């Protein structure tokens, strides 16, 4: 690998680290990073801000100022070329006098899709494409899934005993994991646009589903309840605070959600002959509303529905060194598999340790 190629990769890795800063807080836009380099030194850095704007390029150019003329720009996603709520980033790079733009991956958004690169090239700017492309696509996998498959990325977060149980037969579940692991679970929410649970979890735990992390300054997470029958109690915490944070109830046609709607919840009506089809149609509705990354936090029925629908892309599995036994509540409901080869498969990515508990990250194993 040449010295230029090595430098390009190093600067792009820096841009990717910037893009990761606001992951989970930029929807419906992707989270992008930009580094501006002149004579081998970084003179400007930027990343997509809360709510999706300002964009990374304009932030980096603002910091670089007039020194950007003749510099190289490293951008994790193709600069936009269309007039939206903000002017095109490709135009801003051209106006600043950038000499070379290195792009990790093309933006598949039909409003962009090569248009930003063409603008830059037509202006006489040298363009390099594909530096750290795999890393960039992984970072914004939810954005690409929304564009290419009309669904967000779904991550299943579960906290179980060694035998995969989340509660005793009596329903007692506080606490499976220790405080450090529970805090880590709350921190994970910061990296997702929305938190999704089933109505059973609301009835059992009455969760708030907020991102209670010291220092977190992003938008409140969208709170989603899969509730085909309209069972969410109007007196539940999530319903009582529906005007404080976006709260979406996904229900079947005919479910009585009038009281929830009166409290400020948005009712999304979805059809489906079974739980899996209901999950597929719910995923489409979430993508249509701009979500790119959704964390599923419970319960077992919802987890099973999304697994059966082949919608789980990642798993964050907290495990406590305890055993409850077969009379406990399973972390994942029945999948109805006919043979072992039908089992959803995942590959291990990373393990972290929190006291006595472990956290395993797994990615969908694609064949």
Account of the 3D structure:
With 367 residues, the chain is of the alpha/beta class. It has twelve helices and 16 strands. It has a nine-stranded mixed β-sheet with strand order 11-10-9-8-12-6-13-16-15.
Number of strands: 16
Task: Report the principal-axis shape.
Answer: globular
Roughly how much helix do the residues carry, as a percent range?
25-40%
Strand content: 15-25%
The strands making up the biggest β-sheet line up spatially as 11-10-9-8-12-6-13-16-15
- Please compute the radius of gyration using only Cα atoms: 22 Å
Class per helix and strand makeup: alpha/beta
Order of helices and strands: HEEHEHEHEHHEEHEHEHEHEHEHEEEE
Termini separation comes to 30 Å
Average pLDDT figure: 94
Number of helices: 12
The major sheet is characterized as: 9 strands, mixed
**Runs with pLDDT <50, length 5+?**
none
What are the key terms here?
alpha/beta; nine-stranded mixed beta sheet; 12 helices; 16 strands; five-stranded mixed beta sheet; globular; single chain; 24% strand; 367 residues
Give a quick summary of the entry:
The chain is α/β, with parallel strands linked by helices. Helices cover 29% and strands 24% of the residues.
List the helices and strands and how they pair.
Elements: H1 3-19, E1 33-38, E2 41-47, H2 56-64, E3 72-75, H3 89-95, E4 100-103, H4 115-122, E5 126-129, H5 133-139, H6 141-149, E6 153-160, E7 165-167, H7 179-188, E8 194-198, H8 199-205, E9 222-226, H9 237-240, E10 247-251, H10 258-262, E11 266-269, H11 275-288, E12 293-298, H12 300-308, E13 312-319, E14 329-330, E15 346-354, E16 357-364
Parallel strand pairs: 3-4, 4-5, 6-12, 6-13, 8-9, 8-12, 9-10, 10-11
Antiparallel strand pairs: 1-2, 1-3, 7-14, 13-16, 15-16
């Amino acid at each position: 690998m040449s010295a230029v190629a090595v430098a390009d990769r190093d600067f792009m890795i820096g841009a990717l680290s910037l893009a990761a800063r606001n992951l989970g807080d930029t929807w419906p836009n992707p989270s992008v990073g930009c580094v501006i380099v002149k004579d081998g030194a970084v003179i400007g850095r930027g990343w997509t801000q809360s709510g999706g704007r300002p964009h990374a390029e304009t932030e980096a150019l603002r910091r670089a100022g007039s020194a950007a003329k003749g510099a190289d720009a490293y951008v994790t996603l193709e600069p936009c070329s269309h007039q939206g709520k903000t002017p095109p980033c490709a135009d801003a790079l051209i106006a600043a006098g950038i000499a070379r733009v290195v792009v990790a991956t093309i933006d598949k958004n039909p409003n962009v899709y090569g248009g930003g690169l063409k603008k830059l090239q037509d202006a006489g700017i040298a363009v390099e494409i594909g530096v750290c492309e795999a890393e960039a696509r992984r970072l914004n996998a939810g954005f690409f899934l929304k564009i290419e498959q009309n669904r967000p990325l779904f991550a299943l977060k579960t906290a179980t005993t060694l035998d995969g149980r989340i509660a005793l037969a009596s329903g007692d579940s506080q606490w499976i994991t220790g405080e450090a692991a529970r805090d880590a679970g709350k921190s994970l929410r910061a990296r997702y646009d929305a938190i999704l649970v089933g109505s059973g979890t609301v009835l059992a735990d009455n969760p708030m589903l907020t991102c209670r992390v010291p220092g977190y300054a992003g938008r409140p997470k969208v709170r989603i309840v899969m509730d085909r029958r309209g069972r969410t109690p109007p007196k539940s915490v999530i319903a009582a605070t529906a005007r404080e944070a976006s709260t979406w109830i996904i229900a079947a046609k005919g479910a009585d959600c009038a009281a929830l709607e009166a409290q400020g919840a948005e009712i999304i009506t979805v059809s489906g002959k079974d739980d899996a089809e209901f999950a597929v149609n719910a995923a489409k509705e979430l993508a249509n509303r701009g979500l790119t990354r959704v964390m599923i936090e419970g319960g077992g029925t919802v987890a099973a529905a999304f697994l059966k629908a082949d919608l789980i892309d990642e798993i964050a599995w907290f495990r406590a060194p305890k055993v409850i036994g077969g009379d406990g509540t399973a972390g994942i409901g029945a999948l109805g598999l006919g043979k072992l080869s039908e089992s959803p498969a995942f590959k291990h990515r990373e393990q972290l340790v929190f006291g006595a508990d472990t956290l395993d990250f797994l990615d969908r194993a694609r064949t």
